[in-house]
Model the fold of this input.
Amino acid sequence: MRVGLFVTCLIDLMRPEIGFSVIKLIERAGFEVVVPPAQTCCGQPAYNSGERGLARDLALKTLREFEQFDYIVVPSGSCGGMIRVHYGDLFGDDPDLMSRFGRLRPKVFELTEFLVEVAKVELPPGEFAGPVTYHDSCSGLRELGVKTQPRALLAQAGVAVTEMKDCEHCCGFGGTFAVKYGDISTAIVDEKCANIGASGAGAVVLGDLGCMLNIEGRLRRKGDTATRVLHIAQVLAGDA
Done:
């Protein structure tokens, strides 16, 4: 079975090592991984900014590049949510595109969803020294229902999770929200950082790079150089 990996802009440009961890996990599960080289953005920033024409162009480009695969795996709840939930809105006036999207949609999975629900992996205990706390990204949680899957995988890998207060609350990133409303975004991420610290865990693990960069950036600016901020793929693949 062939998996098309939608790498995401942020992983590609900011943390490519996470992409390699993702490939390692999917290949270990017995799937062939293909990374379409011409892929770009899923269109979410344009869509959230009201630029529907540009968002639709990017959605159509993604559809063309990925509809050939048995599965499409996305290591980001926000990009996964954009593709699986919002492309229908962009294609709604075109019956042919809606038909093609209808065939693509059930093949789109966030990484931990795929590993648990499709690949049904059984991970051996790893060597990661916990405990960690887990941050639920907004899009993964609310649009895709990603909640139990990452925790189940961490438990399989022998990683102890200490839940922080308000683990489901936003980190303040929200894509362009953090740019347009910087003061509000900062207040939100400050609360998130305080909850991470109060958990007593030495690392926060998550599944969305936007949240990862926002939380890590704020922790470092506040002088916290000790708390690790890790994508779940890094932990599960043994690359943390």
